[in-house]
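Suppose you are handed a protein chain with no further information: no name, no annotation, nothing but its sequence. What can you learn? This example shows the usual starting point.
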Amino acid sequence: MKKIKPTFLITFFILSVTTFSNAQYKLNIGNVWLYDLDGTEEKVSIIDTVTLFDSLLYYEYDAKSQWLGKTNLNSVNTDDARRFFIRKKEDGLFERVFTYPNSDIEIQPYTYKENAQLGDKWIYNLHYDNDSTEVDTVWGKVEDVFMGLQFGEWIEIKKVHYYSDNPQIVTDYYKYFNEKFGELATEGYLYLFFLIGCYIDGVLYGDTSFTALSIGDSENHIFTYQLEQNFPNPFNSSTTILYTIPVSGNVKIIVHDITGREVAVLTDEYHYSGNYQITFNASEFRALASGIYYYKIISNLYNETKKMIYLR
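A reasonable first move is to predict its three-dimensional structure. Written in structure tokens, the prediction is:
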């Protein structure tokens, strides 16, 4: 464990490059998270414990990313190499601190609240003008709680809205959290990212190869999005398809035959984040022959196709 004594404290900022580094909430040394960040890789690791402000214990985390060509978010440039720290307060709120080589410090209150409930609200950040006069407050608020599939497990997911009441402050996006895995995804910001693998408290989940991926490129990696195998399968009349949408947006599910000819559009409309099921009733298509068919989901940057068998 290390100890740092900063020389002075600087004010909070709302616009920070460190938004790109995802603060994690399973605070144990050795825990690692891997994200797909707009088709590139971001890796976040808890690497040490540090005492700041003489008595407060923080966890130091390292963030490495290929986004915009940056390979290490702790070293955005050679003159501004920062270090990232996070701690959980007694009330469950998580506070982040960034330190600079010149001993300056930046504090971000509060990124998330442990065991937050629907409707819970907290100060996420403060915005000051150049003369240190407070201009506005940015809030975090739990706007939805739902069940979703992550790494083959049905988990409770909390959708947190980060926003300002001041229309001149450009802050309006969402993050998704789970108490077991930490930060799962972000939507509505400058980028779209998803958790694709992690190593938490000695257990591996999902993809841990730490190789950059494009979303939906491989069926071997489980993302927050999920398209389940239809059931029953084979079927002779109708079959049910379950799917999970973590990021609100338009969702299209189509059925096509082995030649690629479109047979049916099961849905093509806006979905809020959540779990869904839909039925494909083959008996409505009198000319549909027995055989192999495929159903495909398309939503945001995600798409996936699965096979099903129809027996008349």
